């Protein structure tokens, strides 16, 4: 029997199950809502950003899967950083990832509240955030196998939602559905392809990458494959599937809607469907968006709890967090600590009801890209230096650095940039302070 952070499980996965789980962990409001923010900043040039982000994501996942194949580790990228650069890297990487996933949980809670207000506009966001946070913890308490089964189901629903949108949008473009409020036209002139100039397009790059956030979780689950050699196939197919769905669906959004009809507080897919006389479809799609956001939130909650347990086992967090009890071996102390962070996200949703999603999603995306950067740097020390590995590693590093730096130059992304920078500096300061105690602890254990 194998054991993970949220309970024991003796099941294994095929490559397509891993790929489906990757879709479940990745496809969420980072795309369904975050893509709309990017479109308002960069217009149709956002499609190019998604192509580049898909390539960068592939380079990161390729390096992670290679390291997993050479040296399987339950701590995944955090352990590889520790092996490559020392304990300080594993400590800081683990806590930065914990914070990143907690911010993703916060952004998902904000998105869930925004989507639910589509039906109940007078109810405050914080109440919805509290309800969804409680439900998310409930799913984790059911154990790892229940989590995986639910995520496979959610993945099918999310992919079906995009396919439904493509069918409806295609029917509208072909004239099979009439009555749209806007003329059909793909924005290809200078004023609409790059409406905010190169700076707007550059700064929107973070939202293209953020749509692929969660891909790194495949490293946490790849150890459970029936055939470890199929991990690369699972990752490649997952990224290719998402990239095609992302780009084609955004093409239809830009064809159905003018840029001025988009805004950052509603999904562009929802806005596209609302402009046609389809009385029930917007409600169905809104329900699917809620499922998508909830699924990604639960996946992030699972990941953040797993990382906290792994940190505790390496004595980089209070050892109390390793304790698991009950039939499903739930790590209640770790989950409780994470729930405290979720409670802070609920409070933020009360204090910043309108601005929360953009700030939290930008900050979460940037801190996650920092982790991806560490994955690529670790692979440079741990993998065989072939020409292919070197080219992919440096291409990925340049793409990630471009997305990170671009976030500092636009008023939409700048607040999230500074939030992520402050958070990383705080973890760096804590790492520096704590590392003085490590030799003493080592002596005590001896």
Automatic annotation (TrEMBL):
Pfam entry (one): AA_permease
Transferase listed as a keyword: no
TM helices/strands, residue ranges: 20-41, 47-67, 79-98, 118-143, 155-177, 237-263, 283-311, 332-352, 358-378, 390-410, 416-438
Lineage, opening ranks: Bacteria, Bacillati, Bacillota, Bacilli, Bacillales
Segments forming a coiled coil: none
Keywords of this entry: Amino-acid transport, Membrane, Transmembrane, Transmembrane helix, Transport
Bilayer topology annotation: Multi-pass membrane protein
KW Flavoprotein (keyword) present: no
Domain of life: Bacteria
Ranges of residues in domain Amino acid permease/ SLC12A: 22-400
Location relative to the cell: Membrane
Protein name: L-asparagine transporter-like permease
């Amino acid at each position: 029997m194998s054991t993970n952070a949220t309970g024991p499980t003796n099941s294994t996965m095929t490559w397509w199950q891993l790929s489906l789980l990757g879709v479940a962990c990745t496809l969420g409001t980072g795309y369904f809502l975050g893509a709309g923010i990017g479109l308002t900043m960069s217009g149709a040039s956002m499609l190019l950003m998604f192509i580049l982000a898909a390539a960068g994501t592939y380079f990161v996942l390729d390096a992670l899967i290679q390291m997993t194949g050479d040296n399987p580790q339950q701590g995944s990228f955090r352990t590889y950083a520790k092996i490559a650069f020392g304990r300080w890297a594993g400590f800081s990487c683990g806590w930065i990832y914990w914070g990143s996933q907690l911010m993703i949980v916060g952004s998902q809670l904000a998105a869930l509240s925004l989507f639910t207000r589509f039906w109940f506009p007078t109810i405050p966001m914080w109440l919805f955030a509290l309800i969804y946070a409680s439900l998310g913890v409930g799913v984790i308490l059911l154990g790892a196998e229940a989590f995986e089964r639910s995520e496979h189901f959610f993945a099918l629903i999310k992919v079906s939602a995009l396919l439904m949108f493509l069918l409806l949008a295609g029917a509208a473009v072909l004239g099979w559905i009439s009555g749209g409020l806007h003329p059909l036209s793909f924005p290809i002139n200078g004023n609409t392809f790059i409406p905010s100039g190169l700076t707007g397009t550059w700064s929107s790059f973070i939202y293209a990458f953020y749509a692929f956030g969660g891909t790194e979780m495949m490293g946490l689950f790849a150890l459970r494959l029936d055939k470890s050699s199929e991990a690369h196939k699972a990752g490649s197919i997952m990224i290719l599937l998402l990239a095609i769905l992302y780009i084609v669906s955004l093409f239809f959004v830009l064809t159905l809607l003018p840029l001025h009809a988009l805004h950052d507080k509603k999904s562009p897919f929802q806005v596209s469907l609302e402009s046609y006389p389809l009385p029930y479809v917007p409600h169905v799609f809104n329900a699917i968006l809620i499922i998508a956001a909830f699924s990604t939130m639960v996946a992030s909650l699972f990941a953040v709890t797993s990382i906290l347990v792994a940190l505790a086992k390496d004595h980089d967090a209070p050892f109390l967090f390793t304790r698991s009890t009950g039939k499903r071996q739930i790590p209640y102390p770790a989950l409780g600590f994470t729930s405290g962070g979720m409670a802070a996200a609920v409070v933020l949703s009360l204090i910043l009801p309108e601005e929360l999603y953009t700030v939290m999603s930008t900050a979460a995306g940037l801190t996650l890209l920092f982790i991806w950067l560490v994955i690529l740097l670790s692979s440079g020390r741990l993998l065989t230096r072939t020409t292919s590995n070197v080219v992919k590693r440096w291409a990925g590093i340049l793409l990630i650095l471009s997305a990170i730096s671009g976030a500092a130059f636009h008023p939409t992304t700048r607040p999230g940039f500074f939030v992520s920078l402050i958070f990383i500096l705080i973890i760096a300061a804590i790492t520096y302070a704590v590392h003085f105690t490590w030799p003493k602890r080592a002596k005590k254990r001896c």
